[in-house]
Every structure is written in structure tokens, then in C-alpha cells.
Amino acid sequence: MYTQALNTAETADRDLEDAGKAAQFQARIDAEERIEPNDWMPAAYRKTLTRQISQHAHSEIVGMLPEGNWITRAPTLRRKAALLAKVQDECGHGLYLYAAAETLGSSREELVDAMLAGKAKYSSIFNYPTLTWADIGTIGWLVDGAAIMNQIPLCRCSYGPYARAMIRVCKEESFHQRQGYEIMVTLCRGSEEQKAMAQDALNRWWWPVLMMFGPPDATSQHSDTSTKWKIKRFSNDELRQKFVDATVPQAQYLGLTIPDPGMIQDADGHWRYSEIDWTEFKQVLAGNGPCNRDRMAARRKAHEEGAWVREAAASYAAKRARRQTAQAAE
Amino acid sequence: MSCANIQVSETPLVLYALRRADDALILGHRLSEWCGHAPMLEEDMALSNIALDLIGQARELYTFAAKVEGRDNDEDKLAYLRDVRQYRNLLLVEQPNGDFAQTLVRQFFYSAFADLYWRAMMNSRDATLAAIAAKSEKESAYHLRHASEWIIRLGDGTEESHARTQGAIDHLWAFTGEMFAVDDGERALIHAGIAVDPASLRGRWLATLSDVTREATLAPPQNEWMQQGGRSGRHSEHLGHLLSELQSMQRTFPGLTW
Questions:
Q1: CB-side exposure of B151: number of CA atoms within 13 Å?
Q2: pTM (2 decimals)?
Q3: Per residue in B212-244, pLDDT tens?
């Protein structure tokens, strides 16, 4: 899964930095060197990355919910095991990304608290509901497909721990994408009811998936710094176009119709899509998507109901440490 | 696949495999309910992982049962098209997750048994069951370690975690007797060297329980009454709800390929 282009580079405190160090830092980035946790970096670079990586981690964790919604209802044992393994992978990505974010100096607890308090974002695609089994196929096919499009360039991100995390995450995402597409193939080769289920899911997910790439370049404010720092290598619109061009033939193979009557293929072979309804995107970002409240409530519930368990684990660890110290003293 | 219940010819060996398959599926299903909702991400991972192992065991056992039965049933028909009265799992594994302590105590009781059981089953005269046992034994050993560590942490953690865990032990204890019960069909399989006599595992199972609960500062349960019935399809009310969710797709859209 993926965090969309929500990150905003902080520029205000950059002036405070040593100009010489900053120049050296930029020279390293320009030379395609990786920045590592102990290296000097501008405060704004640290802040931008902490925000982006933690948003990405939150997205993985919240992203477990819409798909988790079908684990107990998967139609066959093989599908049940595959879906459970997939959602477990997402959790692993989340853990991995929190660890990458921690190398920048914030703890997982702080980052999670910010998300639970509604201060940190996660990808708004997860604020849409999974209503039928075809949604599970569609999420794998399109949502993971879009995530891969976004994340492959991040494998070359200037920040070493993030880039390395992305390499591993991309491998698993590509497996998920194939798995999702295979669900779609099975549905589209099935009964009329199954085909209709697949088409309905595509109709509902298509536009929100296009929104995953973030606002159009013309209105995107913060890409410049991220591009200079080689956190971002392609613009939102470039990635979106790449995704659409890759996806249209896949939909055609399935015999499904992209819910965009205005879509045409231009002379260069690119599929030109109609204008995206950015009002919907803004509404979902503002907390008014169909599932924003449910997702946050589910995460908060898990966190609150798990508090006594985490306290018990901490208390036991402390007791054991005390006993070991006492034993060593004897 | 039609959405009506299938009929299964429950010869002793088919029934034997079905019972273990149902245990694994129902417990795996219960654990999978935690995915996305656990007290910490590490436990989302661990509980899902254990669920995956169990669902994998269930699939192998159903496939074996279907083959022994020799009709046209398969793993999915056995899982999705039998109703509550046809399910053969232990009452223990269908009990709701409750809080984390209840889930872990249920897992601990089951895994402490499964670990011994699968190790012994590696010597089964049935080659398929012996092979399933060899794989399941490795998994169960990890499940038991995970559950034991949590029982100790929770029991010897805070006052609250101690009380919750003690409560779970007292509550779930009555469902453990069934693990050691044997009917005539199973008795014959035991004599033939295909099955293991669970009574022969009880002493070691109790020893594991006693070691872990002692370290966890928990008290042994007082009530000696044991609930029975799961093995012959007399379940608690909880199983029907679980199955209605588990089977909803196959019941709603009969006969399709997914």
C-alpha cells in the first residue's frame, strides 16, 4: 500500500542550518549518494522524511482494515490463506517502515500516537469500503498496482533506510498485485453475477485509485524540495499517466470497462483520462470519506483495548530485569 | 458446488481426520479475527502467522479426509458446506476470542496438547498422517512457545493482566477434557497404530501447564467439570455464528469458482 503525495517539505528552519554543510549535503545527493541515519542532514529533510515514511507506515496499518474485512469471509480456503498472508505482509511493511522512520529520531509510539490523534495522515484510499469479494481482487490489482508505480522510484530515494525498505516492500507488493489480478481473472471468467461484481468493483475503485497519486502537478505545492532532495523522482501526473497506460490493457484483457466514457488513446499511445473530481479527494482528506471514522475508530479501539497487554509486557520485562540484576549481585 | 449441506461418510478414519481438520480450521479462523486489531503490531503478525499454519494444517487434513472418503468432496466442500451439527471440532477452539488473555489461554491449552500430539503422530502407520504430523509438529512447537511466553508475561505482569489471565484459565478449563476423550472408532485406530492415544499425553500436558502457570504465578483451576460434545457435533452457540460468516460466500453463490 502507499502513502500518497501528502508530504510537505518544511523550509522554514532550513535557514538556521550551516550553509556549508547544506551545500555538502546537496552535493552528495546530486552524486546519487545515499544519506544514512548518522549523517548530517538539514532539519527540513529529516522532518519531510519522517512525515512521509510515517504516513506510509500508517497507510500500511490502516490498509489492513479494508482487506481484513474479508479474511473471515474469503470464498475458499486457498483464498483465505492468501488474503491472510497478504494482510500480514502489510503489517510487516508497517513495522519495517516505522523502523525506518525511527532512524530519523522519532519513536514508533510517538508516530502512532500522532496518527491516532488524527494529526498524521494515511492514504485516503483506505477510507473506501470493501463491499464484495471483487473489492479484494480490485485492491490487489489497482491499489497495489498504483502503490508499486509510486514506490519503485522510492527504491532510489536518497535516504538509505527508506530506499532499502522499499526494495523489499516492492517485491511483496508485486506479488500482491498479481494475486489481485488473478482474483479478477477468475471472476471475469466466471458467472454473469461474478463479472458484474468485478465491473462494479472497478467502477467504485477506479477514480479513488487515480487520486492516490496526489493532486495534479499544477496545484501541487511541495514537490520542488522533494525533487531536489531526490525523495521524489517523478511528478504526480507522470506516475498517474504511467499507471493508466499500464492498466487500460489489463482491464481490456479482463473484458471490463474503465468507468470513464471520455477516455481516449492519443497518437503517442497514452490513454488520456477525464478530469478527476478533486472535490471528492479533498472531502476524503478532510475526514469525510465513507470510512474515515470507522478506520480511526478501529485503530483506536485496538490501541486502547491493547493497552493493558502492553503494560503487562512492560511490567514483566521490568520485573525480570530487576530479578536478573538482583541475581547478578548475589 | 450447491449450497446445500454435503453428506460425509464418516468412517472412523474420515471422522478422525475431520475432527483434527475442524480443530485447525476453527482455531485458525478465530485467530484470523485478530488481524488488524491486536494489541501490538507484532501480535497482528504472530497471530496471523499461527492462523496461517492452522489453516494450512486444516487444508491438508481435509484433503486427506476427502481422499479416504473417496467421494467427490474436497477441502472446500468439507469446510464450507457442512453445518454446525456436522462440524467435529473441540468446543475449546470455537470459544470466542474474548480479550487477549482469553485468546492466549485458549491457544496455550490447545498448543500444549497439539505439540505433544503431532510429535507422537509422526509415528503413525498412515504415511500421509505421519507427513502432516511432521510439518505440524514444527509449527505447534512454535505456537506453544509463543503462547507460553505470553501466559508468563500476562500472569506475572500487572494486577490487571494477572486477573484477566486467571479468569481465562478458570473459564476455559472446562473445555480441555474433550482433548483426551476417545470413542470406539478412534480406539480401533489407536490399536492399529494409525492414531495416538491422547490419554498417554495427558501427564506431559499437565506438566507443561503446571510449569508455565507456576512461573506465571497463576493458580491451577478448581472446577473439575468438563464440557463435552464438539466431537459429535453438539457445539456451543458460538460455532453457528462463526460458520455463517465463514461460509457466507459459498452459501450465497452456490457452485461457483473463486
A1: 32
A2: 0.95
A3: 999 999 998 888 899 999 999 999 999 999 999
Distances from the Cα of A230 to the Cα of A25, A30, A159, A227, A253, angstroms: 12, 8, 9, 5, 36
- Write the CA distances from A315 to A234, A318, B104, B153, B160, integer angstroms: 48, 5, 18, 8, 11
Mean pLDDT of A24-43: 96
Q: Do B35 and A81 touch (CB under 8 A)?
A: no
- B206 — phi, psi (to 5°)? -65, -35
- Chain B segment 70-109 residues within 8 A of A by beta carbon are 75-76, 79-80, 99-100
Q: Is A258 exposed, middle or buried (0-12, 13-18, 19+ CB in 10 A)?
A: middle
Stretch (H or E) spanning A223: helix A223-228
Contact (Cβ atoms closer than 8 angstroms) between residue B169 and residue B218: yes
Distance, in Å, from the CA atom of A96 to the CA atom of B188, rounded to the nearest integer, reads 51
CB A177 within 8 A of CB A135: no
Tell me what ipTM this predicted complex has: 0.97
| Residue appearing with cell numbers 507488493 | A173
Rounded Cα gap, residues B203 and A264, in angstroms: 73
Query: Is residue B140 within 8 Å of residue B111, measured between CB atoms?
Result: yes
* Chain B residues touching A87 at Cβ < 8 A: 35-36, 48
Search chain B and give the residue with CA nearest A307: B39
Query: Best of A1, A58, A80, A304 to disrupt the B interface by mutation (most B CBs within 10 Å)?
Result: A80
Residues whose CB is less than 8 angstroms from the CB of residue B96 and which lie 6 or more positions away in sequence, other chains included = B30, B102, B238
In 3D space, the residue among A200, A203, A230, A234 whose CA is nearest the CA of residue A217 turns out to be: A234
Q: Reduced to 3 DSSP states, what percent helix, strand and coil does chain A have, rounded to the nearest 5?
A: 70, 0, 30
For the segment A154-191, what is each residue's pLDDT rounded down to a tens digit?
999 999 999 999 999 999 999 999 999 999 999 999 99
Query: Which three cell numbers mark A52?
Result: 512521509
The answer to whether B100 contacts A309, with C-beta atoms less than 8 Å apart, is yes
The β-bridge relationship of strands A264-265 and A271-272 is antiparallel
Task: Say which residue the cell 523550509 belongs to.
Answer: A11
